[in-house]
Structures are given as structure tokens and as C-alpha cells.
Give the backbone structure.
Amino acid sequence: MAPHAPLAFHMDPLSALAQSGASPGPVESHIILAAQTGARWAVPYARASLFLASGRVVHEAGGSEGQELGFALATALTYAKALVRAGLPLADAFGRIVLGLSTDETYFYSLAKVRAARILWSRMTGACGVTVEARIEARSSARMLSQLDPWVNLLRLTAAGFAAGVGGADVVTLAPFTEPLGRSTVFARRQARNTQLVLMEEAQLGRVADPAAGAWYLETLTDQMARSAWAVFQKIETAGGLIAALSAGGLQSEVLSVRQKRAADIATRKAGLIGVTEFPILTDARVELDEVDPSAFAKPSPRVQMPGPDGHCSPLPAWRAAEAFEALRARAVALGGPQAILATLGPVKDHAARLGFSTNALAAAGIAATSRAATDITLAEHPLVVICGADEAYLTEGESAARALKAAGARRVVIAGRPSNSEALSAAGVDSFIFAGCDLQAALASALEVFA
């Protein structure tokens, strides 16, 4: 390699500690060694970046945008201090650090996050008495990708790349759309590259500096994220820095709280996942993967043990938003493809909406559905029956329909909706109710039990 070639070493021991919860020896020793090594390379490689101050570990664990940005800032400050102790001037130390962020399909939030990162970087370096331009690397979120209907991942990745480009990221990297399934083929990797090329060369996203500037919504969102992130950053520094904050575990608890809120929103479909909880497809949507035997080239990685006790903290394991519903679909496959009957009450105009809702809801767990009039069901051909009708029909026909279905052998009878006579319906044999805003994940898990 020619002298002075730009390099990105991307050393990031703090992210490794946060994700795994362990460090072979004190993590401080790893940071010091990395800084000393980087300082030696700083002269022959004057344009090289040494550390990656990434907040992606927080994002992939389900954290908020403010938590991700605050974590990245605290990481950057920790690395800058280590580089200064290794002999670099403060301005050069900050100049050797790249901020790492994740962008996902919520492109307004991702766009605002990248914009907020520059504001926060400017404020932090300014508080340290130096002026250094931020360098931001945006990578597509792994949290947003799904194993189900993986072609939708192409749209998610395009939105993530758009947000990163318009937000002003210096480097954008998109993952192959089959990444959650296994090793990607040449085709999948080419799709990732071509998406970036189209956004850059045809859409010309990088030609306009900060095209979102002046838009009230995005300016407000950027400001809110920056304020939230600065509060997280201050809290971390008040605790004694990022290493101390990770050791105490409070940061991880706060990230877990946000993750649980996200999971609850997905379970109730307040946050919909296309191809997973919204418009799921039951037909096989397999994609090709690169089948590689790693035994031919895999080698055990050396253990880099530093003197002193191992570092430990509560880990921030990666999480994908679709995981829970993917598990339901896998269970349905193991059960041989369960099927349910949708028992309709009244004319089509009265039950059509709930028929569509129920079909879509059941498909989210891999349950196929066929419909017929409730009065035509004389034998329980399937253990699960969902009654679909208007609230008025539930008042007049619901109880008798539930009793008839139970008498015909239906093991589980479900009502689509929240009728006012729910107690009477339950007494007549209705086992549960599904409706917009219910915990659909729990309801579907319970529904699958009857097929076991």
C-alpha cells in the first residue's frame, strides 16, 4: 500500500465490551494499547482514522436515537482522551475518530439522527476548545431486517440509504437484503452495491448540502434528538465516563426499557412490519444463499488477554424487530401449516372488514384461513374458528353461533372485535377476542396451541 493512503482502522473496544458484556483483561488496557498503536501509525498515515466511536450497538439492542447518539459521543470522548495520552494533540485526536450510526426504514428519524450527530459533535469538540469537522459513517440497521418476505428488505435498505445520504453521512454502507438468513450470494451483494450507486449517481443525493435544512418538522426532530442525546451524554459523563456507566448497568437498563416498548408496539401492531405483521405472505418466499463450508478456511481467533482482571458489564445483545413473529411462523411450519375457519355472520358488507383483518392477523403467525357462513359449519374441520361479523350481529347471533361451533367440536372459538356483550359471549364458549390494538403476538401464540 502506498504511503499516506487513507485508512480506517475502526478500532472500537467499547462496542465489543457493550455487546458481549466481557473483555479479556481490563477494557481500559485495550483502549490504551489501541491508542498507542494508532499514534504510531498517525505519522506515516496522516489521513488515517483510528477509532470508530459507534452507537450502533445501542441501536441494534433496541435503544432510542438519543441513547445511540449519546453513547457514540461518550465513546468518542473516551477515545480522544486515550489518543491525547498517547501523544496526539487534541484536535488531531478528534480528527482521527469516526462517528458510527445506524439508519433504518424510518427515514425521517434516521435523517434527523445524522443531522443531530453533527450538531452534537460540534458542541462537544467546541467545549473541548477545538474545531474539528465530524466524519460520520452510516450503516444500514440489522434490527429492521426480516427473515420473512426478505424482498421487502430491499425497500427498507433503500430508505436507510436515502436517509443517510440526505442526512449528510460521509460514508454509507448497506447490507445485503438476505443478511438475516445467512451468507449472502453475489446477487444479494450486488443489489446492496447497486442500491447505493443509484442513490449516489442517479438520484445525486450527495449534491445538495443538507437539503432538509429549514423544514420545520425535521429541524424540530433534529433539535429534540440532539437535546435527548446531550442529556444521555451528560448522564454518562456524570457517572464517570462510559466504562463506569457500562459497569454500573444503568445505561443497559434504560436501553432495555426502550426495547421492551418497541417490542410491545410490534406485538400490538402499533408499529407495523410489512411482510411480517402487515400483509404477510404465506407462500414460500425463499431466496438463494451462499452455501459455504467454513471448515476449509476458519481458524480459531487468538485470545488477546491483557494483564489484569477481565472486564465485565451487562451486555447489550442485538435484537431484530421481527424475531417474535418469525418464531411464530417457524412454529407454524413445524406444525405442518395450520389452518383456521373464518365463520362469517350476516351479509358481506357487514363482515368484510373483520374478515380481512382476521385473515391478515392469522397469516402473521403462519395460519391459513378459509371463510364460510357460520350456519354452514356443522363439523369442526379445523380446531380454530374465528367468528367475523358486525357488533350488531354479535348481539343477536354471537352467543348461539359460539355454542354451535363448540358443539360441532371447535377447540378454540375467537371473536374478531370487541363487542359490548363480550362477557355473555365468553359464557357461551368464546375463548378470546382479537382486535386492533390487542396483544396479537400473545393471541396468536395461544391460537397455535390448539394445533399442537
Q: What stands out?
A: The radius of gyration is 27 Å. Residues 326-449 form a domain with the Rossmann fold fold (CATH 3.40.50.280). The CA atoms of residues 335 and 452 lie 7 Å apart.
